Amino acid sequence: MTVLHREEIMGIPFISSSFQETLDELVREIEQGHKFRVITANPEVVMLVKKDEEFKKIIQKADYVTPDGVGILLAGKLLGKPIRERVTGYDLTISLLSIANEKRWRLYLLGAAPEVMEGVNYKIREQYPHIDLQSHHGFFNEDEETSIVEQIKSHRPHLLLVALGMPKQEKWIQKYQNQLPFNLAMGVGGTFDGISGKVKRAPLLWQRLGVEWLYRLLKEPWRWRRMLALPQFVLHVLFSRKR
Ligand code: UDP
Question: In angstroms, what is the span from residue 161 Cα to ligand 1's centroid?
Answer without folding.
Answer: 12
